[in-house]
Amino acid sequence: MKLSIIVPAMNEEENVGDVVECISKVLKDVDYEIIFIDDGSTDRTYEALEKLYKKYKDSVRAISFSRNFGKDSAIYAGLEHSKGEYIAIIDADMEQNPSYLVEMLDFLEKNDDYDQVAMTIKKRKAGSFIKRLGGKAFYGLMNILSDVKFAQDASDFRMFRSNVKDALLSLPEKSRFSKGIFSWIGFKTKFMEYEVGERTHGVTKFNFKSSFKYAIDGIVGFSIRPLRIATFLGTLTSLSGFIYLIYIIIKTVLYGIDSPGFATIVCLILFIGGIQLICLGILGEYMARTFVETKKRPVYIARKKIGFEEEIL
Ligand code: UDP
Ligand code: MG
Question: What pTM value is reported for the model?
Answer without folding.
Answer: 0.81
